[in-house]
Known about the structure:
Helix content is 6%, strand content 14%. It has 98 residues and is mostly beta strands. It has a domain at 22-62 and 71-91. The strands form 2 sheets. A two-stranded antiparallel sheet has the order 1-3. The longest helix is centred in the first third of the chain and has 6 residues, at 26-31.
Amino acid sequence: xxxxxxxxxxxxxxxxxxxxxxxxxxxxxxxxxQPGSTTLFDLAAPAAATRRQPIQVSxxxxxxxxxxxxxxxDLPATAYVQYLxxxxxxxxxxxxxx
Length: 98
């Protein structure tokens, strides 16, 4: 729902902790951070599980297959990304131009 007086709308539908996209491991990362914080995780750190485990993303039933990201299960997450920026409970950003 659009807020009165704003030309943009805040949404939680596309966060990586659901409901349209669910990234495995997100609850654990959220436990390691504080609400309102911004944290950069080094996924390629020597002890990081992401060096050994694949990316696991799930989508709701009925989501168009062409819009779902596909990752190879035989490659670790770090074959695709090396850092993850977790921004918790930030306000909606304002458009750069009106």
